[in-house]
Amino acid sequence: MKPIIEKKSLIPDHQFGFRNNHATVEQVHRMVNLINAGLEEKKYCSAAFLDVSQAFDKVWHQGLRYKLKKLLPAHFYNILESYLHNRFFYVDFKGEETTLRSVLSGVPQGSVLGPLLYFIYTADLPTSNHTSLYTFAHDTAIIAVHEDPAVASSHLQNHLNKVGDWLKEWKIKANATKSQHITFTLRRNDCPAVTLDEVEVPRSDSVKYLGRRYLTLTEG
User: Fold this and answer.
1) 215 Rama sector, left if φ>0, alpha if ψ -120 to 50, beta otherwise
2) Got the DSSP string for 163-199?
3) How far apart are CA 71 and CA 48, in angstroms?
4) CA-wise closest residue to 131 among 191, 177, 73, 207
5) Under a CB-based contact definition with an 8 Å cutoff, are residues 2 and 120 in contact?
6) pLDDT recorded at residue 209
7) What is the distance, to the nearest Å, from the Cα of residue 8 to the centroid of all Cα atoms in its chain?
8) How many CB atoms lie within 10 A of CB 132?
């Protein structure tokens, strides 16, 4: 499938997870370069780091099959549909077993196909001309840069609204209260607050993305 995926550019440029020549440090550099450029121009960077819960387990099979059928040739779709169809699970605890239950969501973790199916499923995550999007598997960050802090957060909020609607439609959950909103700037003010699904995203003085910590530059 890789030649077809590459020819059709099915995996977006902002997705760096589990891809050749797309390491975590390269995604971090991409983000830092944008922030540095904003600081040099004395602008405000309004950034949201989203907490997407159990993303690989929440892939909705019906929605995934719809996207696979639309994007891939029929013979690949038939193989993948068979791969996902009639999967079951049960729980065995201290010798007590449940009955078999159908698996209606999730991609098989630890499998070669798992990340690829997730990337196809999330490939149409909304983007915006006024923001920059950074994804590494399910780790998601959005940054808006502008000389006016209110405009920066307005651009960020518009993108978050689109992302929130998309998450609802495709049955993926993001926890607004565990997400973080941070301002990167050399000025004294912070960018106005933003919300996800009508819940205010908590402000933070520091944020960890892909295991690397950034400190706010407003504190010197």
Assistant:
1) beta
2) HHHHHHHTT--EEEEEEEEEEE-SSSPPPPP-EETTE
3) 30
4) 191
5) no
6) 82
7) 21
8) 19
8 Å CB contact between 45 and 34: yes
Distance CA 116, CA 6 (A): 12
Read off the pLDDT of residues 167-182 as tens digits, 9 standing for 90 and up. Answer: 999 999 999 999 999 9
**Type of residue numbered 129:** N
From the list 117, 113, 114, 122, the residue with the least C-alpha distance to 15 is 122
Three-class secondary structure of residue 211 per DSSP: coil
Six token digits for residue 34? 């944008």
What kind and span of H or E run contains 135? Answer: strand 132-136
Token readout for 59 is 């892939």
Token pair 């439609």 in the structure block, residue: 169
Six-digit token string for 52: 């997407």
**Average confidence score pLDDT of the chain:** 90
- Taking only Cα atoms into account, the Rg of the chain, rounded to an integer number of angstroms, comes to 20
Q: How far apart are CA 171 and CA 138, in angstroms?
A: 14
What are the CA-CA distances from residue 192 to residues 63, 151, 188, 216 (Å)?
35, 9, 13, 15
CA distance 103 to 89: 7
pLDDT band, very low/low/confident/very high, at 22 (cuts 50, 70, 90): confident
- Residues 134-177: tens digit of each pLDDT: 999 889 999 999 999 999 999 999 999 999 999 999 999 999 99
In the three-class reduction of DSSP (H, G, I as helix; E, B as strand; rest coil), residue 214 is classed as strand
